[in-house]
Amino acid sequence: MTQRVAGKSVLITGASRGIGAETAVQLGAAGAMVAVNYREKKRRADGVVRAIEKSGGRALAIGADVTDSAAIDAMLASVAAEFGALDVLVLNASGGLELGADPGYAMSINRDAQLAMARAAAERMEPGSRIVFLTSHQAHFHGRKPVPVEYEPIAESKRAGEDALRGMIPEFDSRGIELVVVSGDMIEGTIVVTLLERRNPDAVAARTAQGALPTVAEFAAAVVDASIMPIEKSGHTVYVGGADYLEQ
Fold it and tell me: Both ends of the chain: CA-CA distance in Å?
């Protein structure tokens, strides 16, 4: 795996903590050059960069709100200036479960921002590059499997984001860029599970009753593989945990 990663430039959105941070550290340890995007948590993002550099890797922290098109362009320019190219874009940033969030925020961050980020990056990526979209089983299977009411806006908007990205596959194909989706069960220790557990502990208990939840490290490892391993065709989906979701 190290040989596949070494020298590749990777931008991970929302990478100052959780899955994004762990993915950044794992990719950095494997030899990738990693741009760690954050919106507000600069200190945490700097900590991720230090962890990567301590392992001998190369990293850059970039503050940018992915719902702001000007900020997206500036971030991509910074990545190009620092690393020379962008080989892998990991779309990890998401939201909508925060108390007091605007009713339209979930769709803005989980659909519109993902589409804008992917489109802007694709214009700068070379053939052979890859875009990786991270989602949850509850979003990926939205409309086919039950969703806790508190998570409904996120599930609906992330499914809309995935659909929008899949709709771009012909454009990606024309540029020689692949799309991979990584869908996971609830991930133990993430902020989403913490927030959901406060509002609807029964929903979390229902998932843990099916078996141990994947850890952040396990999910991040799947994202790393999805970023670099060969796939049969663009739009391939990688599933992490939640075997019951995969039953027909």
Answer: 33
CA dihedral (70, 72, 76, 81) positive or negative? positive
Interstrand relation of 130-136 and 58-63 (parallel, antiparallel or unpaired):
unpaired
pLDDT (tens digit, 9 = 90+) per residue, 147-167?
888 889 999 999 999 999 999
Q: 6-38 in b/e burial notation, b at 16+ Cβ within 10 A?
A: eebbbbbbbbbbbbbbbbbbbbbbbbbbbbbbb
The CA distance from 106 to 114, in Å, is: 11
Query: Helices marked H in 55-136 — which ranges?
Result: 69-83, 105-107, 113-122
Four-CA torsion 1, 191, 54, 39, nearest 10 degrees: 100
| 132 DSSP β-pair partners | 90, 180
* pLDDT for the residue numbered 217: 95
* Among 26, 121, 236, residue whose Cα is nearest residue 34: 26
The region of weakest confidence among 70-84, 117-131, 139-153 is 139-153
CB-based contact 9:90 (threshold 8 Å): no
How far is 41 from 17, CA to CA, in rounded Å? 9
The average pLDDT across 52-57 equals 93
